[in-house]
Amino acid sequence: MHTFLHTKFQFNIQNSIPKASNILIALSSGQDSLCLLKLAHDCLLNKSYNIKSIYIDHQWKKDSLFHLKHLINLTKTKRIPLAIYQIKKLALSESIARENRYKILIQHAIKENCTAIITGHNNNDKVETFFNNIIRGSSLNGINGLTLNKKLNKRISIVRPLINFSKSEITWFCRLFYLPIWSDITNYNFYIQRNRLRHEILPYLQNYFNPQVQKNITNFINFCCIDNEYIQENTLKLYFKSINKNVISLNLKKICNQHTVLQKRVIRLFFYYHFQKQINKNYIKKILHMCNIQKNTVIYFEKLSIYYVNNSIYIKK
């Protein structure tokens, strides 16, 4: 049976992953992953794609072994190979667990020569991530943490083909095909901030402020995305006009008469591209101040010496 979600899934994949690619599916046994597995089986298997799957067991749950057997049976019936990683050292925070998970995903993708990792993140996850980023004080650049397609390195992309699926659509799909969902008890642990957002804050906003809050926030994220793309394009144009092609140098005079947003982004890009360092706002202010005082000077950032000479900054390690 072909549903409208099959059509959405195929469209997202075709716009993100070239044919004949090796694909790695990151699984749990929740609704999202089972929906993803079913769609991948129906739309990708034996259709110019080579599919493998991976499950990372953080061993947070008492029933993790039964959970594992359940997944093994599911992937066997779909004829999709499954790799299993068990993390022996328990991560005490969600962010550390996520970092460990992505490291394993990338390492396994490299090992299996996969160019795309697909996950079951949906539109509700996108909204929850938006709230998490806002709470952490994110800028416009970091508001949309979950996109359809994101490059992890030169060879590997992470693709989220369910990112425009709502939770209710996924629930409907799982019920339609009688998919054997395994309830994950960690999803109801309110010490995890995301769970509190999911089960308390978002339902509260829907009930007492606006029933369409998820849809409206999604629209807002999409508008921010478009604005951010425009700013990024202008940042790159200004960056290439301001750098010295022969030495590691940035001409501050060329950026100082531009908007503050572009100034800050160009400086961040310069330090990240050349030194893989995230420079903070205090040092950005100091660097821009160099331009204003028009005086040869030096400041120190971590193990770098930043020299201001003749309207440009030069870096010495």
Automatic annotation (TrEMBL):
Kinase found in the keyword field: no
Alphabetical list of InterPro entries matching this protein: Rossmann-like_a/b/a_fold, TilS/TtcA_N, tRNA_Ile_lys_synt, tRNA_Ile_lys_synt_N
Start and end residues of each tRNA(Ile)-lysidine/2-thiocytidine synthase N-terminal domain: 23-200
Record keywords: ATP-binding, Ligase, Nucleotide-binding, Plastid, tRNA processing
GO function terms (MF aspect): ATP binding; tRNA(Ile)-lysidine synthase activity
Catalysed reactions, semicolon-separated: cytidine(34) in tRNA(Ile2) + L-lysine + ATP = lysidine(34) in tRNA(Ile2) + AMP + diphosphate + H(+)
Pfam families documented for this protein: ATP_bind_3
EC number: 6.3.4.19
NCBIfam families, A to Z: lysidine_TilS_N
Family assignment from sequence similarity: Belongs to the tRNA(Ile)-lysidine synthase family.
Function in brief: Ligates lysine onto the cytidine present at position 34 of the AUA codon-specific tRNA(Ile) that contains the anticodon CAU, in an ATP-dependent manner. Cytidine is converted to lysidine, thus changing the amino acid specificity of the tRNA from methionine to isoleucine.
Protein name (Swiss-Prot/TrEMBL): tRNA(Ile)-lysidine synthase
Species of origin: Porolithon onkodes
Source lineage: Eukaryota, Rhodophyta, Florideophyceae, Corallinophycidae, Corallinales
Gene of this entry: tilS
